[in-house]
Design brief:
Elements: H1 3-10, H2 13-33, H3 54-67, E1 76-80, H4 88-91, E2 99-104, H5 107-118, E3 124-128, E4 156-161, H6 170-183, E5 184-194, E6 196-197, H7 199-206, E7 216-217, E8 222-224, E9 234-237, H8 238-247, E10 252-257, E11 272-277
Parallel strand pairs: 1-2, 1-4, 2-3, 4-5, 6-9
Antiparallel strand pairs: 5-11, 7-8, 8-9, 10-11
């Protein structure tokens, strides 16, 4: 593991957010004064979701949702882990005749989305949920393994979670899958990203070729990269993911697009993308 990653994992999230805010504040001021700020996007100092380019990743996945996920313009969509609008912003125009719902454990991100998106688009909804996560929300009061999504049964046509299950433990994912099944319409689409460990990824990890080393074992099917903070980066055996989808009847027409995280040369995106339907 690189020194940069070690420092990243060891630094508490609140400290990283504060440092990022200070570091990018001056850049945001210059961008604003020069007229180069991209309208409708959060300032860089508030972006807490990943290290990749915010707009580029959002645009990439909006394209994936539509082209390989077959999201329709009239769909009712759920974004699990909506962050500070990285996926919502590029979907604003496409879903003008649909409806978007998102929830997240970061209050600052939710407030920004409510103020800058929901106030202008009545079909976009964001909700803060105080879920505990050892890495992202240590003060959270709700256990992810007991969390009930705040939506009625059979509500959604399309549910996605990007870079969410890569930070969750097995019992938490099982609960989320149960809730996805409950709130999704029969025939609805799941679009989830993972660090999915198949034979090729496992060999890359063993040979120290993978970008994520996932060297610590939680169970026979769950592995993580950082000894003291498992939730920072978690991978699962591919067969376990498929089995959990199957148990909840979420494995219809399953398609897997492997990513480049394990340093495979034919990767589609960075993380592995699983697309499937709720069996009627």
């Amino acid at each position: 593991m690189s020194l940069k990653k070690k420092i990243k994992y060891l630094t508490p999230v609140p400290v990283k957010k504060a440092l990022k805010y200070i570091f990018y504040l001056f850049e945001d001021i210059i961008t604003f004064l020069s007229g180069k700020k991209i309208k409708g996007y959060p300032p860089k100092r508030l972006n807490f979701v990943g290290s990749s380019e915010f707009k580029k990743v959002g645009d990439e996945f909006a394209d994936h949702f539509i082209k390989i996920g077959k999201m329709k313009k009239t769909d009712t969509v759920l974004d699990i882990g909506s962050g500070i609008g990285r996926m919502a912003i590029p979907l604003k125009k496409y879903l003008k005749d649909g409806e978007y719902y998102g929830f997240d454990i970061d209050k600052r991100g939710v407030k920004w989305c409510q103020k800058n998106i929901s106030n202008k688009l009545l079909n976009f909804h964001f909700e803060y949920v105080d879920i505990y996560n050892k890495y992202y929300n240590k003060k959270g009061k709700i256990k992810a393994s007991e969390f009930v999504f705040p939506y009625k049964d059979n509500k959604f046509d399309f549910i996605f979670a990007t870079s969410v299950f890569t930070h969750m433990m097995p019992e938490q994912i099982i609960q989320y899958f149960k809730e996805v099944k409950r709130v999704m319409k029969p025939g609805g689409t799941c679009f989830f990203t993972w660090f999915s460990i198949d034979e090729e990824a496992e060999n890359k990890i063993k040979n120290n070729q993978s970008n994520c080393d996932l060297k610590y074992k939680h169970t026979d099917y769950c592995f993580y990269s950082h000894k003291n903070v498992p939730e920072a980066e978690i991978g699962y055996k591919e067969n376990w993911i498929i089995d959990q989808l199957k148990k909840q009847n979420l494995n219809g027409d399953l398609k897997i697009h492997h990513g480049t995280w394990s340093n495979r040369k034919d990767g589609f995106s960075y993380q592995d993308i699983f697309i499937s339907q709720k069996i009627k």
